[in-house]
Amino acid sequence: MSRSDGSFKAFLSYAWQWYLLIAAAIAGIDYGIYSLAHTPKRENTLSLFVACQNMESQRLENDLFEANFQDSPIEKVAVDYSDPDGFYFNLVFSTRGVTNTDIVLLPSHYLGEESYPTYFVPLDETVVADYIGETLSWTDYEDIHYGMGIGDRLSLYGIQGDYYAFLNKKSGKIGCLGEDSQNDYALWALRWIYA
Fold this sequence. Notes:
The chain is an alpha/beta fold.
């Protein structure tokens, strides 16, 4: 009996890292399966990107969800932000900012007007008026509206200054403004943001 105890201790002294590696792999796989099962699908998430230095993104996510999407297929509102004066902002904007977002909020001085058609859908005044009512300011390129000035509601979350809301061309939540759009949840969110 003592011989087997000695050989097991000797084996364990040489192979302990393998047991640790196996335990870590099991924990990682378990976490991955849990995350996959509990993360809402892209079509069930409304995503915003904000160009600002600092903001209360978690509070904005909660308030926007509770005000608009409690009884809808939208399971989550995700807000991402980055400092527009930061060194990596252009990289962040071109990857996270316009890749998987529905609404982009930018300060009036950030984008050149010639960039609007590349990233954003043109806004039809009639459609926007159906959701929001009269819009006080627009940002245009070649006499086409691409962004709408937003109200002061977002100052409660740390977004200060002259901001415009744009709808991402790739969004599937822009109603009749998009080609393949199945729903209009981004427009409902804009209505709340603008109020």
